[in-house]
Amino acid sequence: MSHDQSNYRYQKLTWPAINEAVEAERMVVIPVGSTEDHGPHLPLDVDQVIPGTICERTVKTRSDALLFPTVQHGFLPHHMDFPGGITVKWDRFVEYLLDLCFSLAHHGFQKLLLVNGHGSNAHLLEQVARQVIVQYPGVQCGSLSWWEIEEFQAEFRAHAEAGPRGSAHAGEMETSVYLAIDPDAVDMAKAERDISYPMGDHFYAYGLADDPDDVSTNVSLMEWWSTISRTGVKGDPTVATAEKGEAFLAGAVAGLHSILDEFAEFPIREIEDHHDREVENSDYDPFRPR
User: Fold this and answer.
1) pTM above 0.90, yes or no
2) What is the rounded CA–CA span in Å between residue 56 and residue 79?
3) Model pLDDT for residues 62-101, shown as the tens digit of each residue
């Protein structure tokens, strides 16, 4: 099948083209975001726009992948003390994503990658990816958050100026990337450094710019947002620039290409049951989500 770059978006394909994409064993990349406060200087859609842009810049140059529409809403009950957030209960969020992935698996797609843009989605996306594989053993579903990409982290450490804790939320990192994507939507006159949350050796102890060797055991702790931020910011957006954002995006795109290159070739293996008794496929039904 020849690669038509205008048809890398899943929703733009016809049903015969979906069959062709399945036959060609194309992967499906699914950006997952949220709608929530990002300080007084950034719009609510940061966590949608950034992973969506990274995935689009990557997929549109490939012949072996499709870009699924960005999931716009996520799990953020702790942000509801700031105006604007749209939160979905964790179990509904998981079930909704399972519906999306199960639909893709039903059509015949075997490689699904969830690319997350919102921190509190991460553990739920991992649960979704695991349950997809349990339901469909012939399908591989993976998940990651875009800031975990090694090549992005290298670019970030090379360019970051805000120092430790400067990019936890709506800080130097996200503001720079958004400036590179849509500068007219960013009001830098309202950008304000806010690192007002308490920090210790084990709680709120680690930021992207920190050397992990300099940090003790970090304990996950997520409190109500107004108790850890005055403005909705955790970090320093005042040092953000579009030039940094382009470097961060380039690193993330390069890293996602590397991930997809390996994912495309990663083997799908059949289950081999090791019980002495004869086990039918239906015996696994109690362990499947549906």
Assistant:
1) yes
2) 28
3) 999 999 999 999 999 999 999 999 999 999 999 999 999 9
CA distances from 33 to 46, 107, 194, 215 (A): 8, 24, 23, 29
The answer to whether residues 129 and 87 touch, using CB atoms and an 8 Å cutoff, is no
Beta bridge partners of 74: 87
Beta carbons of 241 and 160 less than 8 angstroms apart: no
Sketch out the chain's domains with CATH numbers.
Answer: 8-272 (3.40.50.10310)
Q: At what angle do helices 242-265 and 150-159 cross, to 10 degrees?
A: 160
DSSP character at residue 170: S
Q: What is the largest CA-CA distance in the chain?
A: 70
- Give residue-wise pLDDT tens across range 240-283: 999 999 999 999 999 999 999 999 999 999 999 999 999 998 98
The token duo for 262 is 């390996």
